[in-house]
Amino acid sequence: MKNIKADLDIEIQEIHTTGDRLVDVSLDEIGGKGLFVKDIEMHLLKGDIDVAVHSLKDMPTEIPEGLDLAAFVKRDDPRDMLFTGGNYTLYSLPKDARIGTSSLRRKYQLKSERPDIDIVNVRGNVTTRLDKVDKELDGVILAAAGIKRLGLKPGVPLEIDTVIPAPGQGVIAIETRNNDEYMQALVKGIDHGATRLCSETERTFPRALGADCNFPVAAHAFIVGGDIILHGMIGDIDRPYLMVKKTIRGRDTSLGRVLAEKLLVELEKS
Protein backbone atom coordinates (compact mmCIF):
# COMPACT_ATOMS: atom_id res chain seq x y z
CA MET A 1 0.00 0.00 0.00
CA LYS A 2 1.14 3.53 -0.77
CA ASN A 3 0.61 6.76 1.11
CA ILE A 4 0.77 5.29 4.59
CA LYS A 5 1.35 8.06 7.11
CA ALA A 6 3.91 7.64 9.85
CA ASP A 7 2.35 10.32 12.06
CA LEU A 8 -0.86 8.50 12.85
CA ASP A 9 -3.34 9.66 15.46
CA ILE A 10 -3.62 6.52 17.62
CA GLU A 11 -6.26 5.99 20.31
CA ILE A 12 -5.92 3.08 22.75
CA GLN A 13 -9.21 1.45 23.72
CA GLU A 14 -8.97 -0.82 26.77
CA ILE A 15 -11.56 -3.59 26.58
CA HIS A 16 -12.41 -5.67 29.64
CA THR A 17 -13.28 -9.14 28.41
CA THR A 18 -15.43 -11.86 29.92
CA GLY A 19 -12.24 -13.72 30.86
CA ASP A 20 -11.04 -10.67 32.80
CA ARG A 21 -14.30 -10.38 34.71
CA LEU A 22 -14.91 -14.03 35.65
CA VAL A 23 -11.96 -14.69 37.94
CA ASP A 24 -13.55 -17.03 40.48
CA VAL A 25 -13.91 -20.10 38.25
CA SER A 26 -11.53 -22.22 36.20
CA LEU A 27 -11.18 -21.23 32.54
CA ASP A 28 -11.97 -24.73 31.32
CA GLU A 29 -15.34 -24.48 33.10
CA ILE A 30 -16.43 -21.26 31.37
CA GLY A 31 -15.30 -21.65 27.78
CA GLY A 32 -11.52 -21.52 27.74
CA LYS A 33 -8.97 -18.84 26.96
CA GLY A 34 -11.04 -17.62 24.03
CA LEU A 35 -12.98 -15.58 26.59
CA PHE A 36 -10.02 -13.16 26.62
CA VAL A 37 -10.37 -12.68 22.85
CA LYS A 38 -14.00 -12.91 21.72
CA ASP A 39 -15.16 -9.54 23.08
CA ILE A 40 -12.22 -7.76 21.44
CA GLU A 41 -12.84 -9.51 18.12
CA MET A 42 -16.50 -8.45 18.25
CA HIS A 43 -15.42 -4.80 18.51
CA LEU A 44 -12.99 -5.32 15.64
CA LEU A 45 -15.64 -6.86 13.38
CA LYS A 46 -18.08 -4.03 14.21
CA GLY A 47 -15.47 -1.42 13.29
CA ASP A 48 -15.25 0.04 16.81
CA ILE A 49 -11.48 -0.59 16.66
CA ASP A 50 -9.12 -1.05 13.71
CA VAL A 51 -6.46 -3.26 15.28
CA ALA A 52 -6.62 -5.83 18.09
CA VAL A 53 -3.55 -6.69 20.17
CA HIS A 54 -3.56 -10.15 21.74
CA SER A 55 -1.35 -12.48 23.69
CA LEU A 56 -1.19 -15.23 21.08
CA LYS A 57 -1.30 -18.02 23.66
CA ASP A 58 -4.81 -16.84 24.65
CA MET A 59 -6.17 -17.11 21.11
CA PRO A 60 -8.18 -20.08 19.81
CA THR A 61 -6.60 -21.74 16.80
CA GLU A 62 -9.55 -20.80 14.57
CA ILE A 63 -9.88 -17.11 13.66
CA PRO A 64 -13.42 -15.77 13.05
CA GLU A 65 -14.44 -15.20 9.45
CA GLY A 66 -13.57 -11.67 8.40
CA LEU A 67 -10.46 -11.38 10.58
CA ASP A 68 -6.79 -12.13 10.04
CA LEU A 69 -3.59 -12.31 12.10
CA ALA A 70 -1.70 -9.61 10.22
CA ALA A 71 1.49 -9.55 12.32
CA PHE A 72 3.41 -11.58 14.87
CA VAL A 73 5.71 -9.43 16.99
CA LYS A 74 9.18 -10.92 17.66
CA ARG A 75 8.83 -13.47 20.43
CA ASP A 76 9.83 -12.66 24.00
CA ASP A 77 10.83 -15.30 26.59
CA PRO A 78 8.42 -18.23 26.02
CA ARG A 79 9.10 -20.00 29.32
CA ASP A 80 6.99 -20.32 32.45
CA MET A 81 8.36 -19.11 35.79
CA LEU A 82 7.96 -20.37 39.34
CA PHE A 83 7.42 -17.70 42.01
CA THR A 84 7.96 -18.66 45.65
CA GLY A 85 8.89 -16.87 48.84
CA GLY A 86 12.15 -18.79 49.10
CA ASN A 87 13.41 -18.67 45.51
CA TYR A 88 12.91 -22.43 45.20
CA THR A 89 13.35 -24.36 41.98
CA LEU A 90 10.73 -26.90 40.96
CA TYR A 91 12.95 -29.65 42.36
CA SER A 92 13.85 -27.96 45.65
CA LEU A 93 10.26 -27.14 46.62
CA PRO A 94 9.23 -28.62 49.98
CA LYS A 95 7.35 -31.92 49.81
CA ASP A 96 3.62 -31.52 49.18
CA ALA A 97 4.03 -27.83 48.31
CA ARG A 98 0.86 -26.03 47.19
CA ILE A 99 1.41 -24.50 43.74
CA GLY A 100 -1.13 -22.27 42.02
CA THR A 101 -2.03 -22.50 38.34
CA SER A 102 -5.27 -22.85 36.38
CA SER A 103 -3.53 -24.33 33.31
CA LEU A 104 -4.04 -28.02 32.53
CA ARG A 105 -0.89 -27.88 30.41
CA ARG A 106 1.15 -26.81 33.42
CA LYS A 107 -0.59 -29.19 35.82
CA TYR A 108 0.24 -32.30 33.79
CA GLN A 109 3.88 -31.37 33.31
CA LEU A 110 4.41 -30.23 36.90
CA LYS A 111 2.89 -33.45 38.26
CA SER A 112 5.13 -35.45 35.93
CA GLU A 113 8.21 -33.85 37.50
CA ARG A 114 6.89 -33.56 41.08
CA PRO A 115 3.99 -35.99 41.70
CA ASP A 116 3.84 -34.95 45.37
CA ILE A 117 2.95 -31.29 44.89
CA ASP A 118 -0.62 -30.09 45.33
CA ILE A 119 -1.88 -28.11 42.33
CA VAL A 120 -4.38 -25.39 43.27
CA ASN A 121 -6.56 -23.56 40.74
CA VAL A 122 -5.83 -19.82 40.83
CA ARG A 123 -7.19 -16.99 38.67
CA GLY A 124 -6.92 -13.21 38.67
CA ASN A 125 -4.31 -10.76 37.43
CA VAL A 126 -0.58 -11.18 38.01
CA THR A 127 -0.49 -9.10 41.21
CA THR A 128 -3.42 -11.02 42.69
CA ARG A 129 -1.68 -14.33 42.05
CA LEU A 130 1.68 -13.18 43.40
CA ASP A 131 -0.01 -11.90 46.56
CA LYS A 132 -1.12 -15.45 47.34
CA VAL A 133 2.48 -16.67 47.68
CA ASP A 134 3.41 -17.45 51.30
CA LYS A 135 -0.19 -16.73 52.35
CA GLU A 136 -2.44 -19.27 50.65
CA LEU A 137 0.17 -20.95 48.45
CA ASP A 138 3.82 -21.99 48.44
CA GLY A 139 4.21 -20.75 44.89
CA VAL A 140 2.54 -19.82 41.60
CA ILE A 141 3.41 -20.36 37.94
CA LEU A 142 3.26 -17.41 35.54
CA ALA A 143 4.43 -16.72 31.99
CA ALA A 144 7.86 -15.08 31.85
CA ALA A 145 6.91 -12.71 29.00
CA GLY A 146 4.03 -11.18 30.96
CA ILE A 147 6.24 -10.61 33.98
CA LYS A 148 8.84 -8.87 31.84
CA ARG A 149 6.27 -6.65 30.13
CA LEU A 150 4.96 -5.55 33.52
CA GLY A 151 8.49 -4.75 34.71
CA LEU A 152 8.25 -7.15 37.66
CA LYS A 153 11.05 -9.11 39.29
CA PRO A 154 11.45 -12.47 37.52
CA GLY A 155 10.97 -15.81 39.18
CA VAL A 156 12.82 -19.09 38.58
CA PRO A 157 12.46 -20.14 34.91
CA LEU A 158 11.09 -23.58 34.06
CA GLU A 159 13.13 -24.77 31.11
CA ILE A 160 11.30 -25.75 27.95
CA ASP A 161 12.40 -29.39 28.07
CA THR A 162 10.78 -29.59 31.54
CA VAL A 163 7.58 -27.60 31.01
CA ILE A 164 6.77 -27.03 27.34
CA PRO A 165 5.01 -23.66 26.86
CA ALA A 166 1.57 -23.06 25.40
CA PRO A 167 1.38 -22.61 21.62
CA GLY A 168 2.21 -18.97 20.89
CA GLN A 169 3.49 -18.21 24.39
CA GLY A 170 5.64 -15.07 24.48
CA VAL A 171 4.19 -13.76 21.20
CA ILE A 172 2.03 -10.66 20.67
CA ALA A 173 -0.36 -11.09 17.74
CA ILE A 174 -1.88 -8.20 15.80
CA GLU A 175 -5.35 -8.90 14.41
CA THR A 176 -7.11 -6.86 11.71
CA ARG A 177 -10.15 -7.17 9.47
CA ASN A 178 -9.05 -9.17 6.44
CA ASN A 179 -10.46 -6.60 4.01
CA ASP A 180 -8.60 -3.70 5.64
CA GLU A 181 -5.59 -3.50 3.33
CA TYR A 182 -4.44 -0.21 4.81
CA MET A 183 -4.13 -1.54 8.37
CA GLN A 184 -2.63 -4.83 7.20
CA ALA A 185 0.08 -2.95 5.31
CA LEU A 186 0.62 -0.63 8.26
CA VAL A 187 1.38 -3.43 10.74
CA LYS A 188 3.42 -5.48 8.27
CA GLY A 189 6.56 -3.67 9.41
CA ILE A 190 6.42 -5.32 12.84
CA ASP A 191 5.73 -8.81 11.53
CA HIS A 192 8.68 -11.08 12.45
CA GLY A 193 9.10 -13.88 9.92
CA ALA A 194 10.70 -16.50 12.18
CA THR A 195 8.17 -15.85 14.95
CA ARG A 196 5.30 -16.18 12.46
CA LEU A 197 6.63 -19.49 11.12
CA CYS A 198 7.16 -20.94 14.59
CA SER A 199 3.82 -19.65 15.88
CA GLU A 200 1.87 -21.05 12.95
CA THR A 201 3.62 -24.40 13.39
CA GLU A 202 2.74 -24.47 17.08
CA ARG A 203 -0.89 -23.55 16.42
CA THR A 204 -1.21 -26.28 13.80
CA PHE A 205 -0.52 -28.80 16.59
CA PRO A 206 -3.62 -28.17 18.79
CA ARG A 207 -5.72 -27.52 15.68
CA ALA A 208 -4.91 -31.04 14.47
CA LEU A 209 -5.93 -32.38 17.87
CA GLY A 210 -9.14 -30.35 17.94
CA ALA A 211 -7.91 -28.94 21.24
CA ASP A 212 -8.11 -25.57 22.95
CA CYS A 213 -7.25 -24.64 26.53
CA ASN A 214 -9.66 -27.14 28.15
CA PHE A 215 -7.28 -29.85 26.97
CA PRO A 216 -3.72 -30.47 28.25
CA VAL A 217 -1.60 -29.56 25.24
CA ALA A 218 1.73 -27.79 24.80
CA ALA A 219 3.89 -26.89 21.81
CA HIS A 220 7.02 -24.86 21.22
CA ALA A 221 8.96 -24.40 17.98
CA PHE A 222 12.28 -22.79 17.13
CA ILE A 223 14.50 -22.69 14.06
CA VAL A 224 17.94 -24.28 13.73
CA GLY A 225 19.82 -24.21 10.44
CA GLY A 226 16.68 -23.68 8.41
CA ASP A 227 14.81 -26.52 10.13
CA ILE A 228 11.91 -26.15 12.57
CA ILE A 229 12.38 -28.02 15.85
CA LEU A 230 9.00 -28.69 17.46
CA HIS A 231 8.45 -29.90 21.04
CA GLY A 232 4.95 -31.13 21.85
CA MET A 233 2.94 -32.61 24.71
CA ILE A 234 -0.57 -33.96 25.07
CA GLY A 235 -2.22 -35.29 28.22
CA ASP A 236 -5.04 -37.77 28.67
CA ILE A 237 -7.96 -35.87 30.15
CA ASP A 238 -9.51 -39.12 31.39
CA ARG A 239 -6.32 -40.38 33.06
CA PRO A 240 -4.74 -37.58 35.09
CA TYR A 241 -1.81 -37.00 34.90
CA LEU A 242 -0.84 -39.32 32.04
CA MET A 243 0.93 -37.48 29.22
CA VAL A 244 3.32 -38.02 26.32
CA LYS A 245 6.01 -35.73 24.90
CA LYS A 246 7.98 -35.81 21.67
CA THR A 247 10.30 -33.61 19.59
CA ILE A 248 10.47 -33.72 15.80
CA ARG A 249 12.17 -31.72 13.05
CA GLY A 250 10.91 -30.47 9.70
CA ARG A 251 10.64 -27.61 7.24
CA ASP A 252 7.08 -26.22 7.32
CA THR A 253 4.04 -25.67 9.49
CA SER A 254 2.61 -29.14 8.69
CA LEU A 255 5.09 -30.35 11.31
CA GLY A 256 2.44 -29.55 13.92
CA ARG A 257 -0.02 -31.98 12.35
CA VAL A 258 2.64 -34.68 12.01
CA LEU A 259 3.58 -34.38 15.67
CA ALA A 260 -0.07 -34.48 16.75
CA GLU A 261 -0.58 -37.74 14.88
CA LYS A 262 2.55 -39.30 16.40
CA LEU A 263 1.64 -38.30 19.95
CA LEU A 264 -1.95 -39.56 19.64
CA VAL A 265 -0.59 -42.96 18.68
CA GLU A 266 1.77 -42.95 21.65
CA LEU A 267 -0.99 -41.86 24.03
CA GLU A 268 -3.26 -44.68 22.88
CA LYS A 269 -0.46 -47.16 23.60
CA SER A 270 0.14 -45.79 27.11
Keywords, separated by commas or semicolons:
8 helices; 5-stranded mixed β-sheet; alpha+beta; D-Maltodextrin-Binding Protein, domain 2; globular; 270 residues; 3-stranded antiparallel β-sheet
Textual characterization of the structure:
The structure is a single chain. The chain is α+β, with helices and mostly antiparallel strands. It folds into 2 domains: 18-76 and 167-269, Porphobilinogen deaminase, C-terminal domain (Double Stranded RNA Binding Domain, 2-Layer Sandwich), CATH 3.30.160; 80-158, 3-Layer(aba) Sandwich (D-Maltodextrin-Binding Protein, domain 2). 27% of the residues lie in helices and 22% in strands. The chain has helices at residues 18-21, 38-46, 104-113, 126-131, 144-149, 181-187, 193-209, 255-269, and strands at 52-55, 67-72, 80-84, 98-100, 118-120, 139-143, 156-158, 172-177, 217-224, 227-235, 243-250. α3 (104-113) links the parallel β4 (98-100) and β5. α7 (193-209) packs parallel to α8 (255-269). The longest helix is centred in the C-terminal third of the chain and has 17 residues, at 193-209. The protein is globular. The model has no long low-confidence stretch (mean pLDDT 91).
**Content-based structural category:** alpha+beta
Tally of distinct domains: 2
CATH class of the largest domain reads: Alpha Beta
CATH architectural label of the largest domain: 2-Layer Sandwich
Q: What is the CATH H-level superfamily of the largest domain?
A: Porphobilinogen deaminase, C-terminal domain
The proportion of strand residues reads 15-25%
Separation, N- and C-terminal Cα atoms: 53 Å
Shape: globular
Number of helices: 8
- Kindly provide the radius of gyration, computed on alpha-carbon positions and rounded to a whole number of angstroms: 19 Å
Number of strands: 11
The sequence of SSEs as H and E is HHEEEEHEHEHEEHHEEEH
Largest sheet: 5 strands, mixed
